Amino acid sequence: MARHPIFSLFSANSFSEIFSRFFTWLHKWWISIRPFSLPASTMPVVFGTVLAVVYGEATFQPLLFVMAIAAMVILHGASNLLSDIHDYRRGLDTVATPVSGGVVRGLITVGQSRRAAILLFVAGSLMGVFLAWLTGWMLMLVGLVGLMVGVFYTTGSRISLKYNALGDLAVFMNFGVLGALGAWFVQTGSLSWIPVLWSVPMATLVIAILHANNWRDIHSDTRGNIITVASLLGDKKSLRYYGVLIYGPFLMVLGLILVPWLLVPGFPAMPFTFLITLLALPLTVRLWKIATKRKDPVHPMDFVTLDGSTARLNLVFGGLCTAALLFHLAIENLL
After folding, report:
1. Taking residues 65-72, what's their average pLDDT?
2. Which CATH number applies to 36-334: 1.10.3470, 3.30.1490, 1.10.600, 1.10.530?
3. Worst-scoring range by mean pLDDT, 144-158, 168-182, 255-269?
4. CA gap 326, 320 in Å, rounded
5. CB–CB of 238/222 below 8 Å?
6. CA torsion angle for 249, 252, 254, 256 (degrees, to 10)?
7. What are the residues whose beta carbons fall under 8 Å from the beta carbon of 59, sequence distance 6 or more?
């Protein structure tokens, strides 16, 4: 008896083809949202959540945490897709690199990227509204500021933050201060200065990621009439700025440990367990050497991929900050 054609869909070959197409589709979109950059936005959420439990006396709400992480990833991905479109259209991204997006690689079209960005912005915004409904409407204010920064980070208009030397401030806010503050609010239902101040060292490293990218692209940005902090500083001063951005967080941690303890009684000082962040210094020194040898690199792609390498430093540093909170909690419970 002849088999009905529909049964061919369930044959081994058909299933193999379906899975192959699905993973091909998933892979190209995963590359398009620039996954290497996602720790920059998710780490402040993790840190702010743990901080809320340890210092905000909040009861950990895992579902709210997962929703907050998901919303941040979705919105960050949308912003990356939008940025990819405008960088490509302005002729800034013409050659694919290990950290470039899907449009310049030819994986997706400009139209596909735009539709996906809109869809993700809507999905992330709706998730944020739902979180605000569950936790408190003050979260809407934090989320609205973050959404506006994400939307106007790169646009086709003159108000683009990235193209007018405001990109550093934008990522500092979205992937540092606002991320940690929003995560704190989701768990505690209140606002506080603690997540704002304590997230500054991590937020500084997020600026370093963007600066490494803009530093590499100084010549193409200048040709495209794009103004970034790196293009304003030039190569030599950009090196100094990068040094401040990657070494500064360690000094900030020391300041947040010592200054409140010595000069501001009553304001929570970072616990001494945050000295564990010094374990990230060897990686920092390695990145500094890559930066200083940018014109004569040991490996040809060292400076090209410095932004991705700096993103790894941000992940390590943020992970150590979170571990410091957990160690402090463990010590407090033992005493």
Report:
1. 95
2. 1.10.600
3. 144-158
4. 10
5. no
6. -130
7. 53
